[in-house]
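Technical note accompanying the year-one report. For the benefit of new consortium partners, we illustrate the data format agreed upon in the data management plan: each record pairs a sequence with a structure-token string. No post-processing was applied to the example shown here.
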Amino acid sequence: MFEKEYDIIVVGGGHSGAEASLAAARMGSSVLLITMNLNTIAQMSCNPAMGGIAKGQIIREIDALGGGSGIISDLSAIQFRMLNKSKGPAMWSPRVQSDRNMFSKLWRETLEKTDKLDFYQESVVELLIIKNKISGVITSLGSRIHSKAVILTNGTFLNGLIHIGEKNFSGGRAGESSSRGLTSNLEALGFVSGRMKTGTPPRVDGRSLNYHLMEIQEGDNEPSKFSFLESHVLKSQKACHITYTSSDVHDILRTGFDRSPMFNGRIKSTGPRYCPSIEDKINRFEDRDRHQIFVEPEGWSTIEVYVNGFSTSLPEEIQYQALKKIKGFEQVKLFRPGYAIEYDYFPPTQLKYNLETKIIDNLFFAGQINGTTGYEEAAAQGLMAGINAHLKITDESPFILKRDQAYIGVLIDDLITKGTEEPYRMFTSRAEYRTLLRQDNADIRLTPLSFSLGLASEERLRLVKSKLRDTKKLINFLTTQSVTPDEINNILEKKKSSPMKQSNKINRVLSRPNITIKSLKGLSKISKYLKEEKITESSIEQAEIEIKYSGYIEKEKQNAKKLSKLEEIKIPKGFNYNNLSSLSSEAKEKLNTINPKDLSQASRISGIKPSDISALLVKMGR
């Protein structure tokens, strides 16, 4: 059945495995995707949404690199919102509410239409290793399938254990069995593993809810999209709603705390700090008498509703009683209760920057196996693992994104250099160059790099070049053309901006708060130019941001250049830090464990002090 050797085997069909399979196959590798259930490829196990704060930037980057998550999010969207629009553009984050079933269906169709990609429904229990190099996998039925590289994207399935109140049972997701055998196999090879925990809220019958008692949350009036290609734009949208817990809800939930696996010691692993369960929120924030609940529809044609903000592992009868006390939920019917799940992960400091393991050649880890949480973080790692697995087996240089190039670069650098002891989630605050890493310019930053790999299409590159050309033309027009007080003061008055007393260049006017190119379209010379030159909305947005925030952008570029000087100072392979008496014991231990490739990476390792870097600089003769 498996006589031929595949180039790459991808284990797991979640968001990470889907992106890894797609990228590797599109780059020319023969790929076998092995998953325990072919009907749940790229399933949204938790909330039916993609994007959000910093996560939306990641999806834009995945799309710019030629991945599938952006396009499929657009095609399956039921609502689009640009978050943080009242803040600066570095904080703008796109988010879509998705049709859960459509999202998974479109991913499977996309993968099935991809050449050189095969599928097999099975569970992998062991790896085939020859002289510290991967040579394939063994399945639960004993099949030995050979390959040049393997990417593990096991999600929450490795020894998964589901908790609901005092009950617990084996499972990788509600209604699906866990994966057993692989953790012990990896540990025998020398890998260190740990346990993490995540949770999900109950799902309810939307027909039983009284939406009139809730706050409505509509999508944007002019919805945008994720993909930089000319993909689907929403013509109609479904509303979400907001309601709140109350002191009555909290009192009911507290009656189940003695049976909560969170509090009675049955769950010993660490959960996500920034997405706590409802019982954890009540326990940690005792002074709060209510918490926000987002009521999110699961799709166009289903009555199922996701109760965002009510993640819990309390007994199901406690969940039900508490839900009935929430405004609008008085007659609620429960589809299924919330639950917590514990699973194995492998601290990501055991990986190289290309997501290949340090112990076994050509073995890659991606997604929640590395200690991350979220579809977007998983998809980004899968894409990078797929790219790098293909590059490794074709003897090409690894594809590594720096911290000033992409949020994906920040994500992987954080994992490799700092590790994580709790589920890692991306935030804009993690990126020191977030003004450079905006959602609007991901195509400019990354598509040329992806095109050089043979992943991004010529159509993508053509669109980027056109956008750059139009942006440059528009900036030149705005910086050379002037407006008189008579032309502009009426517009400034409407925007409550002080009037001009003399003529000024348009870009100077545009640098004022509340003044946008859209508000200046009343000027005939601007509207005429935009129409005649056919300047697209994306180029208009790009030009406006570059003009308004030029000072901040330039400052971050200079800071990135300073950092690159440390990157130029390479640390010799196998360097013995124990011979440096000026280094602290902690520094020696962490440097020997992570083996940074340069001083820039060394400086970002948790626990490494400036004095340690100074000692290394002296040793390197700098």
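Partners are asked to follow this layout when depositing records. Residues 265 and 524 are 70 Å apart (CA to CA).
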